[in-house]
From TrEMBL:
Gene source species: Comamonas piscis
UniProt keyword Membrane present: yes
GO cellular component, one term: membrane
InterPro entries attached to this UniProt entry: AAA+_ATPase, ABC_transporter-like_ATP-bd, ABC_transpr_TagH-like, Bact_Polysacc_Export_ATP-bd, P-loop_NTPase
Domain ABC transporter: start-end pairs: 29-250
Identification of the protein by name: ABC transporter ATP-binding protein
Record flagged with keyword Nucleotide-binding: yes
UniProt keyword annotations, A-Z: ATP-binding, Cell membrane, Membrane, Nucleotide-binding
Taxonomic lineage of the native organism: Bacteria, Pseudomonadati, Pseudomonadota, Betaproteobacteria, Burkholderiales
Superkingdom in the source lineage: Bacteria
GO MF annotation terms: ABC-type transporter activity; ATP binding; ATP hydrolysis activity
Region forming the signal peptide: none
Length: 250
């Protein structure tokens, strides 16, 4: 079966907790009825609607850009596509391996070594421990951190952490690549290598979804786009068409 992702009428909502709803004593009293009777019940929980009525079908060969202001729902949609967030309404179906360059430092324990991080992330991405271990030499050479990989990552600078996280996140070629704005790290020489590595990866995958404010990147790698506004798809079409809509409807 070929890789695909399909969303049908997907809603995402996040609960909003106030001080009262988080109070431990209040919760215990409400649950156990310490005064001989149960409380009337919790106050209705409020929520914030992050995405609403999202319909999207991704097939092999699709190169989709996500366009929108900060807070429009681009990163939330990427996390839905990657399986981090489950819809509160609607349906998501997918097949194929997915790599998400959204939370690239996920699983980075400060006390663990760089080697441990490589192995852990490899297993999370579906590899065996042996397969993940085969990354070590290549990642060490690419990041120029070979001599530091056995040291705890708390001893790394921020730039070193980002180098390592980026190298691990781009070490495997998935069926589906989901990419948010990627933080740059390192000197100009490393940036050049990182851009080539990323561009090569984007060209190899079957399905690509990119959320970016970089219009040139979207034009270079995407054929179509979605304009997100307040958690809904406001427009869809070619990249140029969507950029025109985005600028004409600020």
């Amino acid at each position: 079966m070929q890789p695909f992702i399909q969303l049908r009428d997907v809603d995402i909502a996040f609960p909003v907790f106030d001080a009262q709803s988080l109070g431990l004593i209040n919760s215990l009293v409400r649950f156990s009825g310490l005064h001989g009777r149960r409380a009337a019940g919790p106050a209705p929980m409020r929520s914030v609607q992050a995405l609403h009525g999202i319909n999207l079908s991704l097939q092999p060969g699709d190169r989709i850009g996500l366009i929108g202001h900060n807070g429009a729902g681009k990163s939330t949609l990427l996390r839905v596509l990657s399986g981090v967030y489950e819809p509160v309404r609607g349906e998501m179906r997918q097949h194929g391996s997915i790599s998400a360059l959204t939370d690239i430092m996920l699983g980075m324990d400060p006390e663990a070594s760089g080697l441990d991080f490589i192995i852990t992330r490899g297993i999370v991405m579906g590899l065996s421990k042996r397969e993940a271990g085969e990354w070590v030499q290549e990642i060490g050479a690419f990041t120029e951190l070979s001599e530091r990989l056995h040291m705890p990552v708390r001893t790394y600078s921020t730039g070193m952490l980002l180098k390592l996280a980026f190298a691990v996140a781009t070490a495997i070629t998935p069926d589906i690549l989901l990419m948010d704005e990627v933080v740059g790290a390192g000197d100009a020489k490393f940036q050049e290598r990182a851009q080539k590595r990323l561009h090569d990866l984007m060209a190899r995958v079957s399905i690509l979804v990119v959320a970016s404010h970089n219009e040139q990147l979207l034009k270079s790698f995407c054929s179509h786009a979605l304009v997100l506004r307040q958690g809904t798809i406001a427009h869809r079409g070619t990249v140029d068409d969507c950029l025109d809509f985005y600028h004409a409807n600020p």
